[in-house]
Amino acid sequence: MRFLCFILIGTVLGAQAQPLSSRNKKALAAYQQGELAFRRIQFGQAVTLAEEAIRADKKFEEAYFLKAVSLKKMERLEEATQVLKQALPLSTSPANQQKYIYELADSYLKMGNYAASEEMGLRFQQRDSTNAFINLWLRQCRFAQTNVRHRRAVSIMELPAPLNLMPMQYFPVLSADESHLIYTVRAGQNTNLEDEDLYESFRDSAGVWSRPVRLSEAVNSRMREGTATLSADGRTMVVARCGQRGCDLFESKKTGDEWSELIPLQNVNSPSWDSQPSLSADGRTLFFASARPGGQGKADIWFATRQTDGAWSAPVNAGPVVNTPFDEASPFLHPNGVDLFFASAGREGFGGMDLYRCRWAKNTAMRPVNLGYPINDYQDQYALFVSAHGRGGYFTQFAGRRQGKLMKVDWDTTLITEKPTVVRGVVSHAKDGQPLSAQVQVFDLLTGESVFRGESDSLRGTYVAILPSRSQFSVRATKTGFLFYSGSFDASTEANEGVVRFDIRLTPAALGASVVLNNLFFDFDSDHLDDRSKTELLQVVEFLRQHTSMRIEISGHTDDVGAGSYNHELSQKRAMRVVEFLTRQGVPSARMRAVGYGASRPLVPNTTAVQRAQNRRIEMRILP
Predict the structure, then answer these.
(1) Given 140, 174, 221, 276, which residue has the most CB atoms within 10 angstroms?
(2) CA angle, 346 then 351 then 357, to 5°
(3) What gap in Å lies between CA 394 and CA 355, rounded to an integer?
(4) Helix (H, G, I), strand (E, B) or coil at 230
(5) Confidence band (pLDDT; 50, 70, 90) for 101?
(6) What is the Cα–Cα distance from 555 to 564, expressed in whole angstroms?
(7) Cα(first)–Cα(last) distance of the chain, in Å?
(8) Got the DSSP string for 396-439?
(9) Under a CB-based contact definition with an 8 Å cutoff, are residues 187 and 165 in contact?
């Protein structure tokens, strides 16, 4: 709501609807010079000139108002309030009285004096019940007085050295495991924000942060690089870069330890202000704040989705459930993919910008909930980064306009509605163990929905996936020249504690090479394929379409429980069911053969139930 003061001052200090209250030439001359100083953003000089006008005419009410609004711009609210209280009884103009009452209501709210703000708001309403800001502030005062008593138990600490060594650092974002921190630094005391750059720091296994370093010239420039956001694996970054024409969003990719040159987001950027991005964990959805036309208010939350060809869709407004006729800012989509956090100045809260959480599913928001006191208070709260486990986060604590510190907050209960599953692993060559860059995709076996699509690092082979819910998942990895990998894991219970290690080994697609189709499921003692098998079978179809000359063997295998002849027959039937499905999907039957081996080719000894389960399988082998 910072723009509001300039709108009001224009109505009082500009062309007057009525004559000024003073006729003193010395007072008028000082006042006019004070107006000019205010418009030049020289607020201290405006205060001095307003005081000179008041000394010349102690009943010059407009000079009191000039002094008060200038003090407010300098964040000297207590002094501004006292000056407004002096000016109010001097005025005989109902219109001017309303302006003084309005500013008092605003000042009291900004100081957290909810009772006094409510009193001023009710006085204003006696003459005008239609003012949107007054009506909002009254709702906020009543909400705050009721809810400030319900204090959350929180612990707040400043991030330790070697962090927080600059005068101004803010907007922290972290990788999913909280080992990689990127934030904005403004060096020196430049209030015009002409020297914003991005810095990064890494935390080791002992919890010690490295000395922060400036990101490479590929990211930082002579323009201002502000808020950044990272994908879960820390290898995709979207950055707000600001220049003379405003702010736009740019993307960079990390290979090894190097970031690529920033590329503007086509289809996303507009001629208006676009900033404060937040990537989903899989990097496929981007939330951001924008002042573009077509929204609900001045600044709204918007989102875009990455298409299958890698391009971004046209942005869509998050809608009236999230956005208001006032300002919304700093969206943050939690790694679970369903909890959207954002700041809003247009809702019941504690005054100014408050932080809210809403449920986000299928591009639709549910009613936002205020995060409560003391996370929110009468000051502005922005840019909360919530940890994957939901019991802590990071934010910036400002002390005036020239000092900002990176802070960590922990609270007594989780802020998220679903705890995500974090999957991390390494993709490597099955024969020599060398790391590989490969496409990794994860599916929810219960719904068949793709919940993650990413690429392992080309130098280290590492990947990180944040899955939005606890379920049963299949994992597929593909790389040109290799057989696809098929695996699965069960994260539907608390046993994994939300963290799964899942390494992948890829086998070259040579003659005789084989892969176990781990995500095929048959009913017990039957050749009937479970519906959960469809995702895996369609992946086989896609693989064969990409390798049109390849011939394969689909082989069925059992454990050693039961008669050998029965196991052989069951394994043959199961292999045939798979070939029949592939044939229905258009794969020529001449390219496939079905073979049942029964229990004759175990992978491991049939000693335990787990080992017997490994031996019950379907394999695909490349034929000459």
Answers:
(1) 276
(2) 60
(3) 13
(4) strand
(5) very high
(6) 16
(7) 72
(8) EEESTTS-EEEEEEEESS-S-SSPPEEEEEEEEETTT--B---E
(9) no
Question: What angle (nearest 5°) sits at the alpha carbon of residue 356, between those of residues 279 and 228?
Answer: 25
Q: Is 29 helix (H, G, I), strand (E, B) or coil?
A: helix
- Report the interhelical angle of 94-110 vs 2-13 (nearest 10°): 160
Residue pair 541/588 in contact (Cβ under 8 Å)? The answer is no
Which of helix, strand or coil describes residue 204?
A: coil
The encoded tokens of residue 336 equal: 């679970």
Residue 11 has what pLDDT?
40
Structure tokens at 134: 């007054």
What is the per-residue pLDDT across 228-275, written as a single tens digit (0 to 9) for each? 998 877 788 999 999 877 899 999 998 878 899 999 999 999 999 999
3 state DSSP class of 338: coil
Burial (CB count within 10 angstroms: exposed 0-12, middle 13-18, buried 19+), residue 204: exposed
DSSP codes, 254-305:
EETTEEPPPEE-TTT--SS-EEEEEE-TTS-EEEEEE--TTSSSSSEEEEEE
**How far, rounded to the nearest angstrom, does the alpha carbon of residue 624 sit from its chain's CA centroid?**
50
Sign of CA dihedral 111, 116, 122, 126: negative
Question: Region 130-141: what's the mean pLDDT?
Answer: 96
Tokens of 334: 């939690």
Token pair belonging to 599 = 């229990």
Q: What is the pLDDT of residues 329-359, one digit of tens each?
A: 999 999 888 999 999 999 999 999 999 999 9
Q: Contact, 218 vs 200, CB < 8 A?
A: no
Closest CA to 248 of 275, 276, 225, 285: 275
Measured CA to CA, the distance from residue 543 to residue 540 in angstroms comes to: 5
Rounded to the nearest 5 percent, the helix, strand and coil shares of the chain are: 25, 30, 40
